[in-house]
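Researcher: Re-running this chain for the archive, since the previous output was lost when a drive failed. Same request as before.
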Amino acid sequence: MDSYMEHLVKKNTEPKDLALRFGCIAFIVVGTLVAFFFVPALSIIVGLGLAMLYRYVIFPLTDVEYEYLYCDKSITVSKIMAKEKRKDLETFDIDKMEILAPANSYRLGEYKNRDLKETAYWSMDKTKEEPPYAMIYEGGRKILLDLPQEFVKMVQNNAPRKVFFD
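Model: Regenerated structure tokens:
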């Protein structure tokens, strides 16, 4: 029996992202004004060039969503930038997963002393009541995901001894 589910999570815009956006907009305005005073004919080209750089490079890097897809005993994580560009980041095989539990679960206690490489694919919203889920993968990685209960239940159906809700 094949199971399929997808879930989309918007990453919070961090203060550094807002500072980068504001700094780029300020740079565009200042660059266009400087170009206008020195070479008025080029000011439009400079302004449009800087605006396009912002629109196609900076803004997509600071407007991120993560999509989780569960299909055929694997979880695929994709990154969607500015609701336009999609990039598949990783695919995790459920058979190689050691445990999936909330990040604050006591069941992750035995993994605290391990030197795990941590990867965060979650919203970074620390005000939510529910913590992200932590997946220990192949013994050396800890992946943080914002998974809803229905998604976790579907994973638990295929790996009941590896998935916990507490």
